[in-house]
Amino acid sequence: MRIDKYLWSTRYFKTRNMASTACKKGHVKINDQAIKPSREVYPMDKIVVRKNQVNYELTVLDIPKSRVGAKLVDIYRKDTTPKTAFEHNELLQYSKDYYRKKGMGRPTKKDRREIDGYLEEE
Q: Which domains does the chain have, with CATH numbers?
């Protein structure tokens, strides 16, 4: 099976055209070699896909007949991406208070409730 079709069928790309474009740009490597979209994929090939500033590393286990459901993807590939690859790209979730300067702008609804509760206690 072609690499662009394999990446599309294992849901790394939404369309085959996107997978082909990534191959042409050099974002896909098989066994550390940049490849063309027409390159054949075989079981036990090591693939590196650069997508959204993360290098996904995977090993081909089997070749699917066509595009597979998300739950069945693990049958056809083994994800060997190191956890450190996500640490730099991961967005930390902060509350609104983190981004807001203290004393600036309208208080949040939660803050207003706390203020109302404090005023009622007096």
A: 3-87 (3.10.290.10)
For 65-100, b/e burial (b = at least 16 CB within 10 A) is eeeeeeeebeebbeeeeeeeeeeeeeeeeeeeeeee
Burial class (CB in 10 A: 0-12, 13-18, 19+), 34: middle
| Closest alpha carbon to 62 in 80, 31, 41 | 41
DSSP E strand stretches across 35-112: 46-51, 54-60, 77-79
Written as six digits, the tokens of 39 are 């390159």
The pTM (predicted TM-score) of the whole model is 0.68
**Which letter does DSSP use for residue 66 in this model?**
S
Q: Tens digits of per-residue pLDDT, 78-101?
A: 988 887 655 655 544 445 555 556
Rg (CA), the chain: 23
Does residue 107 sit in helix, strand or coil? coil
Judge whether 8 and 15 are in contact, CB under 8 Å: yes
